[in-house]
Design brief:
alpha+beta, Transferase(Phosphotransferase), domain 1, 2 domains, six-stranded antiparallel β-sheet, three-stranded antiparallel β-sheet, 12 strands, disordered C terminus
Length: about 350
């Protein structure tokens, strides 16, 4: 629901110019800062849970204020700066830098319209900035998860800088890692959301959940094709196509690094952003075949890389070896026909 219209002013400072985004978690507006002439901000309106009691709503607001303060301390060139937060008319608002340019969902649409793919080198330049931003977030104390990485939440500025925007689903990991605190309730966007995140706050999400979403985003950028939703992949493991079957020009390393990040089980993904970046940019080892993908393609140069096996593949390998030994024994023991 849109609550504000152009011309509305909040806190005698932020004048609404236009709505620039809308979703289940609220709206985002472009607003002019009356105190600083010529400056524009992105004003995110947080949609409260209509089922919450007044007491729960008050607790949510206190939590929002504490965690918005944490977000305001973040400072990275690929993250918009959070400059203010406040509550007005029973709504919570987060004020961030307004990022000019267009999002990467639009970049994909433009490439599809031209019947071509975004060059791999260009996507990797974006990925370099994104992995640096995620490494910054994940190494905060406590670590910060974005939880809604997708092309529509990544802006490309006129000077070529990538910005990871919309902190609507940011999650802060507690120091003991046994519980988490969420700024705003939400599950992310289905196409880029790992299976473990479907449990909302009850899900066991960690930095590898952001890696899955990043992998899905890169898959989309490199192939012009959105990734298959995790729930469908769980039911039909072969549903996800190898990106090289869609875009044959992709390098083997890039394709396998992306698929590794998109492994269904967190334990089968890279352990952190650093490991993923090293594999993507040619410095680290890659798995022989990403586990849980159902893909048939195997690169001819796999012998040059370290084999990384997930627990499911290990069990399958042991079973295959046992069956092979049993078949040999049965063959040797069989009587010879005259």
């Amino acid at each position: 629901m849109i609550h504000l219209k152009p011309g509305d002013v909040l806190r005698h400072r932020y004048e609404i110019v236009e709505i620039i985004g809308q979703g289940g978690m609220g709206c985002i507006y472009k607003a002019a800062d009356r105190r600083l002439e010529g400056r524009f901000t992105a004003l995110k309106e947080i949609q409260p849970d209509p089922n919450n009691t007044p007491e729960e709503r008050q607790q949510d607001r206190l939590q929002f204020q504490r965690e918005a303060s944490t977000l305001a301390c973040l400072d990275h060139p690929s993250l918009p700066k959070v400059s203010d937060f406040f509550s007005e008319n029973d709504q919570d608002y987060l004020v961030m830098d307004f990022v000019p340019g267009y999002d990467l969902r639009q970049a994909v649409e433009r490439a599809r319209h031209r019947d071509e793919f975004i060059p791999e080198a260009e996507v990797l330049r974006w990925a370099n900035q994104l992995t640096d931003a995620l490494r910054y977030l994940h190494t905060q104390d406590p670590p910060v998860l974005h939880r809604d990485i997708k092309p529509a939440n990544i802006k490309l500025t006129p000077n070529g800088l990538i910005k990871l925007v919309d902190f609507g689903l940011v999650k802060l990991l507690s120091s003991d890692e046994n519980r988490t605190i969420t700024v705003v309730q939400g599950r992310g966007t289905a196409l880029y959301t790992p299976l473990e995140q479907y449990g909302g706050d009850l899900g066991h999400t960690d930095v590898r959940s952001d890696l899955y979403a990043l992998g899905g985003t890169l898959y989309h950028l490199l192939t012009n094709t959105p990734p298959v939703e995790a729930r469908q992949r769980f039911l039909t493991p072969s549903a996800l196509r190898d990106p090289r079957d869609i875009n044959p020009a992709l390098s083997d390393r890039t394709a396998r690094a992306v698929l590794w990040a998109m492994s269904m089980h967190p334990d089968d993904r890279p352990r952190d952003v650093k490991a993923f970046a090293e594999s993507l940019f040619g410095q680290g080892a890659l798995p022989l075949r990403p586990t849980g993908t159902g893909l048939r393609r195997v690169s001819p140069d796999v012998r040059e890389h370290t084999l990384v096996l997930g627990p499911g593949n290990v069990a399958l390998g042991v079973l295959a070896a046992v069956l092979l030994i049993v078949s040999v024994i049965i063959t040797l023991a069989a009587p010879t026909l005259p």
